[in-house]
Amino acid sequence: MTARATAPYGSWSSPISAADVARARLRLSYPTIHGDRVWWQETRPDKGGRTTIVRSGVDLLPAPWNARTRVHEYGGRSYIPLPDGDVVFANYEDQRLYRLTPGELPRPLTPEPAQPAGLRYADFALAPDAQHIWCVCEGHTTAGVRRAIVAVPVDGSAAENAGAIRELVSGADFYAFPTPSPEGGHLAWMQWSHPRMPWDGTEVRVAAFDETGALDRPRQVKGGLNESALAPTWLSESRLYVVSDWPGWWNLYELGLHGESPQALYPAEEEFAGALWQLGGRPYAVLDDGRIAVLHGQGDQRLGLYDPETAEMVDFDLPYTDWKPQLSADGTSIVGIAGAPDIPWSVVVVDADSGEAKVLRSELDSPPEAAYLPLPRAQELEGPFGRPVHAYVYPPSNPAFQAPAGELPPYVVFVHGGPTDHGTSVLDLEIAYFTSRGIGVIDVNYGGSTGYGRAYRERLRRQWGIVDVEDSVAAAEALIRGGAADPGRLAIRGGSAGGWTTLCAVTQTDLFKAGTSYFGISDPQNWLKETHDFESTYLYGLIGPIPGFERAYEERSPIARASEVACPVLLLQGLDDPIVSPPQSERFAEAMARKQTPYAYLTFEGESHGFRRADTVIACLEAELAFYGQTLGFDPKDVAPIELTVGRPPADQAGAPGQEAAVSEDAETSA
């Protein structure tokens, strides 16, 4: 065995490069199975972040077509297969629906909108007549945003005649899960309205079709103002399954249309669903024989098989520790996206009878040697007032290096976005990029995170910028108390809502010596005015309604507290971000300049919310590593140094936005 070299933490050489991390940003999502065919979406960073549609390993969509819907800006499933093998998809550039016959150019199905991307479509279901797609339609005009469930003919007649698109349901602010009954007599769907988010209070509604084809007397069958109900699936014309969190956990229920009380199928203090940030995924799937493939657990979710006849649940004996809430089933075959600490997210087909699994595609074809991958240690830490805080701890891991005796490693607190979301234990090369260089990571599922029940989720209600910061600080302090981290070399970083928590933390405490904000919110009152419709009242629940809570916004605003920034900050921002617009980062950079606090502000043209391009990912990670080297006191290998700006606002900095050379003085980076 080769002896390990001795070198300070943070200065270790690693075979995991930023380019490797960028390649691992291939994103697989929304698999669908029919017979022996499996479709899925595949987002490719080396192709500028373009999303294509793959069927059983064959790329169906030629460049430059980009299958990506912008409904709610977060999008979701962008395609649906038709019985004849064609595919209907939403094209990113114009947001129109197109019909794709493999081997031919796509043909438009919806009219060209009056303004660019003015009409958007998502969450597709095939109508019982197989001649229409039922979906959510989102219309953007100067008067605002309006949504409805519509029927789009698949023969192309609506491409020139918008009147061919029939509106089925309207009146609420938001819709999801349009689901026809087996014989086509009913439609079920989910809806909610401002100021609630889909994890706050929603309704599942059902209506019957009358003789004219219109929906008659829609009625609520589950949900309410303080109950999140979602994902209806029909058993028959009069019975259906629904997920609801009314007892405090998202569990699966059976409902009847004739006044029967909802019946919990498998009541447990576990989540059988997650937050609905994107449309089109289902957290369970019914097999042909009536058994149900379900995802369940606390934090990470396991794949189980529930039998309604025996009320028994059996988990599959598979190496995967977590699954995305995107299941599909046909016959006895189940397909989903699964991963583990040593297995990248993969499209996996499972045979329900034998339990055998087959991997069709992985986000990373050749993972690094296992010794370079940190194994997460799930911990329940003690936060303020004795409340538990969930986290995954990733110590430094590199078989070729060891630190000098007595040295403690630097640690970075990772803060997920959302904030109604959570970190998982699945292999993440971004974390390995740091840990293999001798920098520890603790990924915190602070109060407000999903995966631990509604009460844990609602800890953040009216407490955003307080509880999330306290829990992140508690996680870092737990490392110090345990002798795992150097108390003088702690950093914090996050994206979107995680960027907010980062900026709040560095303006409320001096615990951290560096902070990195990827497109983070710094000015919440202005963010309410600048952001998109889906989240335009989100902060009413997280901080408080406006007007009325202006003082709370001001007290927690990182911009308002910029004079108290305790450490250098790296700001990374996409210039085409419709969710957290560039002024959020720009104004904080200006505040840093006024305070004479070192910072770097990097911007990227063509990037939106969540970076998709390989060159952007590489530039950000290398800048972040260099930033930690300078602020935490180590010499990182194989990255150019970063020069922090002091006292000069972004507009006065030299260099063009988005240029990698600008990393030294003018720079940038959820659900």
TrEMBL record:
Protein's organism: Actinoallomurus liliacearum
Domain Peptidase S9 prolyl oligopeptidase catalytic: 428-633
Region (Disordered): 646-671
Signal peptide location: none
Protein name, per record: Prolyl oligopeptidase family serine peptidase
Matches recorded under Pfam families: Peptidase_S9
